[in-house]
Amino acid sequence: MTTDQLPVGETLAATVPMIRTLGLEFLEVTAERAVLRLPDQPDYHNHLGGPHAGAMFTLAESASGAIVLAAFGDQLQRAVPLAVTAEIGYRKLAKGIVTATATLGRPAADVVAELDAGQRPEFPVAVSLTREDGAVTGEMTVVWTLRPHS
Description:
Helix content: 25-40%
Distance between the termini: 15 Å
Oligomer: single chain
Number of helices: 4
Shape: elongated
Strand order of the largest sheet: 1-2-4-5-6-3
């Protein structure tokens, strides 16, 4: 994966077909926070008329990947970011547009220091899923690693 000087959202949309399939929108991507939106699309509804759990999982995981790329894109020449585990909890019924907000669970400098020390660092990314009225519909934690190139 390479950023090739493109914004993170454009890079991910170009390299991850599922992002394009779901039409995910990148509202904000920084090294501190990533905010993505899943438009309300009947083709991806569940039996209750809201977004399918798989679409919400993909939204949350994509938000976590966006912040990882923003925070560690300058490390891609020596390590590849990989999701290690992901856990999601669905809290309330989602209807309409759903927004995912991701935040790093550890300072990026600490993660890079471990990489500098020859380790394979792991770090969590917390993601909150909300519907348009602000209610939290789900929460996800993705544990990521930076695997050094061999």
